[in-house]
Amino acid sequence: MADTATPPFPAENDDHDPHEHGSLRHGVGVGGYNGRWRLALRVALACMLVAIAGMAASAVMVSAGEAIVVTQFGAVIRVITKPGLTWKAPGPVQLTTRVDLRLRTTSTGLQDVGTRDGLRILVQVYAGWSVPEDDSAIRQFLRAVGNDPDEAARQLRSFVGSALQVVASQFDLAEVVNTDSADYGGSGQGNLGRVVTEPANWHGFEQSARITVPPLAVVWLSPE
Fold it and tell me: Which segments within the chain are labelled E, that is strand?
């Protein structure tokens, strides 16, 4: 009787493709290449986003009527007044402060001041002010009021109020406009262009004056 050789492994699928293992090795290689390509794409995209964020943090747009003060660790290193796009180091290395250079107005309110001839008058001063478009002036403004326009206006009103007391005492009181003047077709009543005080006590003041106000008329008086 002839011996029958038994195969070491059962042949479950006789139509097995002899090139299957080679195909599997080829597929693994393509998958690794695609993975590296996707990783490189992610890295490039991340670098692009970081670059865009850095440019956005470094770009400074200067508008007309303002100045940009660039500080580095608290010290002013540059003042930019020319409108347009400029650049700085990203924060927190360099920070910016915007200073408004436009014209502002303020008022002292009514103040009781005395003229040279002893009259007591109520005067209100309106003042227009702005920060000069100058490097040193802008730095001084920041040191003086800390870029606070309200504080700057308060200091200005205080200065003007003090100066007003001194200035008003150097002038007599003149009649500037009288709507009843003959020049305007009126009766010609008024103060003859000037108000003069006399040594007559009135409401606790040693000097007083008589002011003529014509009927249905307005008189404007001003220190001369």
Answer: 59-62, 66-72, 75-80, 84-87, 94-100, 104-114, 120-129, 173-178, 194-195, 219-223
